[in-house]
Amino acid sequence: MTPAPIAVALDAPDLETAARWAALVTPHVSTVKVGLELYLRYGPDVIASVRGASGVRLFLDLKLHDIPNTVAGAARAVARLRPSILTVHAAGGPAMIRAAVEAAPHTQIAAVTILTSLTEDDLGRIGLLGPADDAVRRLAALSVEAGATALVCSPNEVRAVRAEVGEGITLITPGVRPAGAATQDQARVATPEQALADGADLLVIGRPITGSPDPGAAAAAIAASLRRAS
Ligand SMILES: O=c1ccn([C@@H]2O[C@H](COP(=O)(O)O)[C@@H](O)[C@H]2O)c(=O)[nH]1
After folding, report:
1. Which residue puts its alpha carbon closest to atom 7 of ligand 1?
2. What is the distance in A from the centroid of ligand 1 to the CA of 56?
3. Probe ligand 1: pick from 25, 116, 117, 183, max atoms within 8 Å of CB?
4. Predicted ipTM beyond 0.90
5. Local structure of 13: helix, strand or coil
6. Buried b (16+ CB within 10 A) or exposed e, 79-116
7. pTM of this structure
């Protein structure tokens, strides 16, 4: 069976747990995601541990955000690990995004538009007045112009972003919660089925899977539900 277009966020406190979660979910999902918690604790060694022997794709979610020269150096440093996807913050601007794209030519650079944990009230407080859609679309357009071929946005904005950037750009959505699941610190959320129906290419799902007593079964259940819905 084709693995589901899900990236499981391995936000684990230690390497053993992350490797165990990765082994349990990889029969069911296309991708595993390593973020700041694991990478800052273990560095590049974490990559081999979670990749294991499987051919699972690795998404390195470091959300780089600095001046172009620094981001280019950081992207070059992690490109050796051959992640399939590496994130940068779109708010770093076009020159920074382009620097990452040029420094890591074999890795897909995904620009994070507006974090899915932010409400419209939060956005107003940081000076981004108006609907989240507007800021997300602006950041999406500038990121693609700068060479990003993937974008991270909430599932609520997928339709608007697709209309803005067209086909051929990978839309990645965290903020995904199965119906009835706790939203935790996520603010702009939708179900996996809705995110996919609206045109997301890759759904990032962490705690609804890794917080389950059986992460393998939780991943399999969401994958089966996506197959039924499509
Ligand atoms: O806007 C963003 C960008 C990245 N993330 C990351 O996705 C996962 C979500 O985990 P859950 O447990 O499903 O909430 C996490 O690793 C975040 O760092 C995001 O949530 N929003």
Report:
1. 174
2. 19
3. 116
4. yes
5. coil
6. bebebbbbbbbbbbbbebbbbbbebbeebbbbbbbbbb
7. 0.98
